[in-house]
Design brief:
heterodimer; A: about 375 residues; mainly alpha; MetI-like fold; 3 domains; globular; disordered C terminus; B: about 325 residues; alpha/beta; D-Maltodextrin-Binding Protein, domain 2; five-stranded mixed beta sheet; three-stranded parallel beta sheet; 14 strands
């Protein structure tokens, strides 16, 4: 009986569990890794305090180091006192925050933009959260959202019309990104199905379309939309500049989306098609109920990947003269009041983009986890 | 293919040569003017989102001439690449976007430059510590140069003509050039003189940098309209000329009301007290009065946006009146 005390479970060696063990396993497994780890730690040690100091602790927000309200660049501590140890001058962002968010949208009408953002969140809810109550009704709203958003943002139906050359900043970035992705997604599905179609005309058209659009850079399409299209349109029919850009962005995204989804379609085993057909489902029923749900599920990482890519590519519109978030930032730097504060502007723009793209990638991870569990996929 | 191209050309011509821009603008109720996406001193949105700048003032002058209200302009932002197609397609009525007047743009692209509002030219900027006061003393210097531009060719010509050598540091954008110059990776930055002044103004200590007096190219910048609508071209041309003539005659935004009772005949003609010059342009006779009252004369616009008291600190030099040693000269108002 005494011997039993000898069977007391021994703990695993300290070196393989807990934080210490994890570190040892992942960071210091051999001398090369140890060296790289130390190097990275050193750089982070140098970089993070410096950046925090620049961006927060010795930075100006509303007032400078003398406590004066900053109204132009000469008030910024780092301009007024170049010898001193001063960080960023965020006043440029604070003073121009409205422009960064809405461009030149009339302030008394800006509630329309805010309402649109709010409705966008509601429209996204049924897509993002599966178990939300009343999902079926919300989905109807989601489908109607682009039209609602258009009327709210542009005008008509009793609303004052705000021409798109007054739009700018994050508004333009989001309009291009959200509308581009939202319209391109169904279009991409159709193109992907079309390319795999048994009907030669449809499959040839879709293949040609996809290959042509993928074969040229986005900037070429933007130029085509901006420069060539107006010359081909009949007189009097002057398509709005933003709409032309949106068309170019959407077509571009649709072609890429189509290829991503086609990849998903190809991963679905033949058996799935045959099983669907053998129970008498039509082509559309088969795709809607059996094939696409699986294909899209497999494609989620790539779908999000191309969407993030598109969201960032929208900054290319600056080359054709639309003032998106980055364009407004450059405009601010071109004003003699604020020139030279490019670090602040670019860091801020990068931060805004990061918030959006990082949320997108986090959400896709969540989605992957949720969909992978509990469903036994034929494709695995 | 050739046939197809000619059809496009005819189409493009048909849609761009529609006469009656002035009537279109009047019916619409505002002027559509193309400007840059942002160039210090020439065009940029202020904190309240209103466009301001030296080029913007030309747009405002035209709006004041037509509507008697300089705020009746909508600005379309254009880039170096999109400016000409935007004008050709009729999306904008005029372009005031520091555009150099060249033969091919005037003739081949089918535009009409109505005048020059700023005489620019390629110059050099160096650190004052270099102790050079003339560009011919820059032998062996490293030059930051935007690739694929006429500036690059002008630079090569200048150094070759003077028998001196240089090392080129190719860069893509103005921002890049500025960073390279301030970091000491090149000794010289060369671009249009107005751009150099803007770069200098952004330095932490502008006094450490000098713009050399050498100007090695002609860059006359001015507003332009589409070919074929001469009435419209005249309106823009005489709006611009009014700015210059007002300075010649000493009329500015603050004394313009008093000048109405002047005894100088040309002042009375300009302000619409005598003669029907506005009617000839199908404008009201006091169009020039409205321009001067609301926008000011050339020197007011210059001083407000790019002059010595602004961060740019550009001197009048070539842009002084012909009577003050510059080459600014407007045809008589009669």
């Amino acid at each position: 009986m005494e011997n039993n005390s000898n069977f007391e479970t021994r703990k695993p060696p300290v070196a393989t569990t807990g934080i210490l063990g994890w570190c040892r396993q992942h960071l210091f497994s051999n001398w090369v890794n140890s060296f790289i780890t130390l190097l990275v730690i050193y750089f982070l040690y140098q970089l993070i305090p410096w950046f925090l100091d620049w961006s927060v602790f010795s930075a100006d927000f509303w007032t400078n180091y003398k406590g004066e309200l900053i109204v132009d660049r000469t008030f910024c501590s780092r301009v007024a006192d170049p010898e001193g140890d001063h960080g960023a001058c965020w006043a440029i962002i604070i003073v121009r925050f409205y422009q960064f968010m809405y461009g030149f949208y009339p302030p008394e009408q800006v509630w329309r933009v805010n309402l649109t953002y709010f409705l966008l969140v509601i429209a996204l809810l049924p897509l993002l959260i599966e178990k939300i109550p009343g999902r079926k009704h919300l989905i109807k709203f989601t489908i109607a959202f682009p039209i609602v958003a258009f009327i709210l943002l542009y005008g008509g139906f009793g609303f004052q019309i705000i021409p798109t050359n007054k739009w700018g900043g994050l508004l333009v970035t989001l309009v291009l990104g959200v509308f581009g992705i939202a319209i391109a997604f169904p279009l991409g599905i159709l193109l992907a199905l079309g390319r795999r179609s048994q009907l030669p005309v449809i499959s040839m058209f879709c293949t040609l379309f996809i290959e042509f659009i993928r074969g040229v850079p986005l900037i070429t399409l933007l130029f085509f939309g901006m420069v060539m299209l107006p010359l081909f349109l009949p007189e009097g029919l002057n398509l709005d500049g933003l709409v032309r850009v949106l068309v170019a962005v959407t077509l571009f995204q649709a072609a890429y989306m189509a290829e991503v989804i086609r990849g998903g379609l190809q991963a679905i085993p033949r058996g799935q098609y045959e099983a669907a057909q053998s129970v008498g489902l039509s082509y559309w029923q088969m795709n809607r109920k059996i094939i696409l749900p699986q294909a899209i599920r497999i494609s989620i990482p790539s779908i999000v990947n191309t969407s993030i890519g598109l969201f960032k590519d929208t900054t290319l519109v600056i080359i054709i003269g639309l003032l998106d978030l980055l364009g407004i930032g450059r405009g601010a730097l071109a004003d003699a009041t604020w020139m030279g504060l490019s670090n602040e502007v670019y860091v801020f723009v990068a931060l805004v983009f990061f918030i959006f793209t990082f949320s997108m990638s986090r959400y896709s991870l969540y989605l992957e986890k949720k969909l992978k569990t509990g469903i036994n996929m034929g494709a695995d | 293919m050739k046939k197809l191209l000619s059809i496009f050309a005819v189409l493009a011509f048909a849609f761009s040569a529609n006469a009656g821009t002035l009537d279109d603008v009047k019916n619409r109720g505002f002027l559509k003017c193309g400007v840059t996406t942002g160039l210090i001193g020439f065009a940029a949105p202020d904190d309240a989102g209103n466009w301001a700048g030296f080029d913007v003032d030309v747009c405002r002058a035209v709006a004041a001439a037509i509507f008697g209200d300089s705020s009746k302009v909508e600005f379309t932002t254009t880039t170096g690449k999109s400016r000409f197609p935007t004008l050709a397609s009729g999306e904008i009525d005029m372009l005031a976007r520091n555009t150099t007047w060249t033969l091919s743009r005037d003739v081949n692209l089918g535009f009409e430059f109505v005048g020059v509002n700023y005489y620019d030219g390629q110059g050099f900027m160096i650190p004052s510590a270099l102790g050079v006061d003339d560009a011919t003393g820059l032998d062996g210097a490293t030059v930051c140069i935007q690739t694929g531009t006429t500036t690059e060719l002008n630079l090569a010509d200048f150094f070759r003509a003077n028998g001196i050598g240089y090392e080129a540091l190719p860069i893509e954008t103005n921002d890049e050039a500025r960073e390279n110059l301030f970091a000491g990776r090149c000794d010289v930055y060369t671009t249009d003189a107005s751009g150099l002044s803007a770069t200098r103004a952004q330095a932490d200590d502008p006094d450490k940098w000098v713009v050399l007096p050498n100007i090695i190219s002609k860059e006359p910048l001015g507003p332009l309209v589409r070919h074929g609508d001469h009435q419209w071209g005249d309106v823009v041309r005489w709006s611009l000329n009014t700015l210059i003539i007002a300075e010649e005659l000493g009329i500015n935004s603050s004394n313009v009301d008093d000048m109405k009772s002047s005894n100088i005949p040309e002042v009375l003609r300009v302000l619409g007290v005598e003669g029907g010059y506005g009617e000839m342009l199908e404008l009201s006779n006091d169009f020039a009065y409205n321009i001067i009252k609301q926008v000011g004369n050339y020197s007011e616009s210059f001083d407000r946006n790019i002059g010595p008291d602004t961060p740019l600190g550009i001197g009048r030099n070539l842009n002084a009146l012909w009577t003050d040693g510059g080459i600014l000269y407007a045809p008589p108002f009669r």
